[in-house]
Design a protein that fits this description.
4-stranded antiparallel beta sheet; mainly beta; 11 strands; about 120 residues; 7-stranded mixed beta sheet; single chain
């Protein structure tokens, strides 16, 4: 069994910052890609950012230059630093990890950007 525990969501004003964390535990031998996706009400889930085990990153167009993804392989943890937040960033953010032959999702954490 693999578990993903997310933390760091909440309410923030436009222009503010938040940092999300996601720690993976369980029967994990090697994590290939770790990342974040988000889903706003009435919209499809979309890519926010991913990072490979070699450190290669990929970002959704709407967050480039504002969000930074990073990982700590020793802790099986992925982070998402979100700066210059906008109301349109409001969504449930889901952690995702890809291992050989499978992939896992976190339960989601709400991020609300509002004044």
């Amino acid at each position: 069994q693999v578990q993903l525990v997310e933390s760091g969501g909440g309410l923030v004003q436009p222009g503010g910052s938040l940092r999300l964390s996601c720690a993976a535990s369980g029967s994990i031998f090697s994590i290939n890609v770790m990342g974040w996706y988000r889903q706003a009400p009435g919209k499809q889930r979309e890519l926010v950012a991913t990072i490979s085990n070699f450190g290669g990153t990929n970002y959704g167009d709407s967050v480039k230059g504002r969000f930074t993804v990073s990982r700590d392989n020793a802790k099986n943890t992925v982070y998402l630093q979100m700066n210059s937040l906008k109301p349109e960033d409001t969504a449930v953010y889901y952690c995702n990890i890809m291992v050989v032959g499978d992939n896992y999702w976190g339960q989601g954490t709400q991020v609300t950007v509002s004044s």
